[in-house]
Design a protein that fits this description.
Among the domains are: about 280 residues, 3-Layer(aba) Sandwich (Rossmann fold), CATH 3.40.50; about 120 residues, ANL, C-terminal domain (GMP Synthetase, Chain A, domain 3). Helices cover about 30% and strands about 25% of the residues. The strands form 10 sheets. The protein has a 7-stranded mixed sheet with strand order 5-4-17-16-18-19-20, sandwiched between helices. Helix 3 packs antiparallel against helix 4, helix 3 packs parallel to helix 10 and helix 6 packs across helix 7. Bound molecules: coenzyme A and adenosine monophosphate. GO terms for molecular function: propionate-CoA ligase activity.
Length: about 625
């Protein structure tokens, strides 16, 4: 057992202010803080309160000033458009300061919100950094969400400006974004003043007079603008994530704590320093993209690969390996589902043959539980260290990990290793009592959370407290269940709420149910996540129909799938749905989703004493069996 990890962790918990003050040296500040941790408004904590900085300055300008201007900052690799080019720090500075200059010229100021609905192109990173430069708060919405989801986020964030593109490119073809944006803007109550649209050659967008401007036209004559100093505690971005209701939660990230924590994590966890090449194969619409495609690598002066493509099919399961070799990637980060996809298409690793991966030191996996099979397969094929690590949109950076840049510990398959310095993780029962070693309970983190974690939910402090802080006063509720072994290794096993994880994408079953109930034929709906060999989980819906509905099963299912795709988006991957006569419920009317999930996945379950009608479990089991789940003989 590596004591260095534990010693560093103990220092961070016993002397957090000294620990994080030292880490803050990696960041350039315009003026230093009044207090490292301001706890006067606990449970709302403020890191580096009174300090002033600019995140864009730290991610871009200072590297040019330090002589890294000619180093590639962003390496764009787009197999779906057959295009690859590098953007140096100097070029990045020019692009970002001009875009920021245009934004400023149309009245976007510090504190204004800006929504970014874009595909995986370098301009998306320019947009984020341009916001940071002028102190505007960006909110990136993942391109796989439908117009309705975009409208909900626009109404919550109330942006002055939206940046978007004419299209994204998926293996299925060109996905026009502009019609989705137009529909969202029509639907939203909040009126957006300006849109900047990146026209891509694959699809031309129609611009609306007096509202939309073409990206190139906008930046052509815009003045460069310098960075503004913001408070450490000012929000840098809002990132919406699924909660248990249909209304997404707007996770708020500050500037100072975020910059300090990400810079620390790049070195200590990912072993990446200035000049190294790093690749997180995710999407900027998710937290992984925010932290480890854009901000983390750029804050430390590394080169970040920005990849527009999939692990397989664009064009083959060797695409990741060739990209790593070509751009000398030292640490690579993806989701286990991506590795499962490659394993499915290339089980014997034929596409690895002849690819020189000597540059690669570590493969990091997160976003969902990494099953030991996937871990072993990757280890064997790559002959590299494969590191599972655990975190969430809310925390913004890893909570449990192996510190590959500081003091690696032995890998235990199925575990994301140990608590990262700054995080004090406990496993508790429903009463808040710590459970024994190897016993499963709710995973909680003692307050205060370290720098870089969420400070609140956008314009909803009450929901922040209700969702995360009220169940166990003094602790943050992660929403995950798991256990720790005798060496303190953590094992994350499942969610304790109605969130499901589909191909590393976090989705709310409550939202699916809301959408299904919009259908005229549906009286009631229950959605559960069932096991899937590729995506980890996929959503499965059971609906009870209103009386007198005259639709064939096929017609109904097709309509429901189309509805979910239209309302939530293709990312929902909703392909399993069936009508049932009745749903299993308790006598107080609570739908027994957990029991249904266990039946579907062939897990043991107890029939709750409070069940209203035990026969409903047979109805559900028979339906699930017909759908290819729930072994009828269990
Ligand atoms: N814009 C528009 N549509 C998008 C999109 C985007 N940015 N991202 C995904 N979609 C669409 C896909 O085209 C697909 O549509 P389809 O139903 O018409 O085929 C649908 O959303 C589901 O996409 P996806 O989840 O990517 O599933 P897939 O079956 O196409 O691919 C994997 C499966 C495993 C290859 C893929 O999920 C993957 O690469 N996962 C990596 C996970 C990841 O990066 N997670 C982020 C957290 S680390
Ligand atoms: P997101 O906020 O989309 O990043 O999703 C976070 C959730 O994904 C966590 O709360 C976990 O449920 C799950 N998750 C992420 N990484 C891991 C991991 N390494 N092991 C187990 N679950 C994980």
């Amino acid at each position: 057992m590596n004591n260095k990890h534990l010693q560093l962790h103990a220092q961070s918990i016993n002397h957090p202010e000294t620990f994080w003050a030292q880490a803050a040296d990696a960041i350039d500040w315009y003026s230093t803080w009044d207090s490292i941790l301001d706890d006067r408004q606990a449970p709302f904590y403020h890191w580096f309160a009174g300090g002033k900085l600019n995140t864009c300055y730290n991610a871009v300008d200072r590297h040019v000033a330090a002589g890294r201007g000619e180093q590639v900052a962003l390496q764009y690799v787009s197999p779906v458009t057959d295009c690859e080019y590098g953007i140096t720090y100097r070029e990045l500075l020019a692009q970002v300061s001009r875009l920021a200059g245009y934004m400023d010229s149309i009245g976007v100021k510090k504190g204004d919100r800006v929504v970014i609905y874009m595909p995986m192109v370098p301009e998306t990173a320019f947009a984020m950094l341009a916001c940071a430069r002028i102190g505007a708060i960006h909110s990136v919405v993942f391109g796989g969400f439908a117009a309705n989801e975009l409208a909900t986020r626009i109404d919550d964030a109330k942006p002055k400006l939206v940046l978007s593109a004419s299209c994204g490119i998926e293996p299925s073809g060109v996905v026009p974004y502009k019609p989705l944006l137009d529909a969202a803007l029509l639907q939203a109550n909040h009126k957006v003043e300006h849109c900047i649209i990146l026209n891509r050659s694959q699809c031309e967008a129609t611009l609306q007079a007096n509202r939309d401007i073409d990206w190139q036209t906008a930046v052509a004559t815009a003045p460069d603008i310098d960075c503004v100093a913001v408070e450490s505690t000012d929000p840098l971005y809002i990132l919406y994530t699924s909660g248990t209701t249909g209304q997404p939660k707007g996770v708020v990230r500050d500037n100072g704590g975020h910059a300090v924590a990400l810079a620390w994590s790049m070195k200590h966890i990912y072993d990446i320093s200035a000049g190294d090449s790093f690749w997180a194969a995710s999407d900027v619409g998710w937290v992984v993209g925010h932290s480890y495609i854009v901000y983390g690598p750029l804050l430390v002066g590394a080169t970040s690969v920005l990849y527009e493509g999939k692990p397989v099919g664009t064009p083959d399961p060797g695409a990741f390996w060739r990209t790593i070799a070509k751009y000398k990637v030292k640490s690579f980060f993806t989701a286990p589902t991506a590795i499962r996809a490659i394993k499915r298409d290339d089980p014997d690793g034929l596409f690895l043959q002849g690819v020189d991966l000597t540059c690669l030191e570590n493969l990091f996996l997160a976003g969902e539980r990494c099953d030991p099979d996937t871990l072993h397969w990757a280890e064997q094929q790559l002959q590299k260290r494969v590191i599972d690590h655990w975190w969430q949109t809310e925390t913004g950076w890893p909570v449990a990990a192996n510190l590959m840049g500081y003091a690696p510990v032995a890998v235990k398959p199925g575990s994301p290793a140990l608590a990262v310095p700054g995080y004090q993780i406990d496993i508790v029962d429903v009463m808040g009592e710590k459970v024994a070693v190897n016993e499963t309970g709710n995973v909680v983190i003692k307050l205060p959370l370290p720098p870089g974690t969420l400070t609140t939910l956008w314009q909803n402090e009450q929901r922040y407290q209700d969702s995360y802080l009220s169940m166990y006063p003094g602790y943050y509720l992660t929403g995950d269940a798991g256990y720790k072994d005798e060496q303190g290794y953590l094992y994350i096993m499942s969610r304790i709420d109605d969130i499901i994880n589909v191909a590393g994408h976090r989705l709310s079953t409550g939202r699916f149910e809301e959408v299904l109930c919009q259908h005229d034929a549906v009286a009631e709906a229950a959605v559960i996540g069932v096991k899937d060999n590729l995506k980890g989980q996929v959503p499965l819906g059971l609906v009870v129909l209103k009386k007198g509905i005259n639709l064939s099963d096929d017609e109904l299912n097709q309509q429901l799938m189309t509805l979910v795709r239209r309302e939530i988006g293709p990312v929902a991957s909703f392909r399993l749905v069936s009508a049932v006569q009745k749903l299993p419920k308790t006598r107080s009317g609570k739908i027994l989703r957990g029991t249904m999930r266990n039946i579907a996945d062939n897990q043991d379950y107890n029939v709750p004493a409070t069940i209203e009608d035990p026969a409903t479990l047979d109805i559900v089991r028979n339906t699930l069996t017909r759908m290819g789940y729930a072994d009828a003989h269990v």
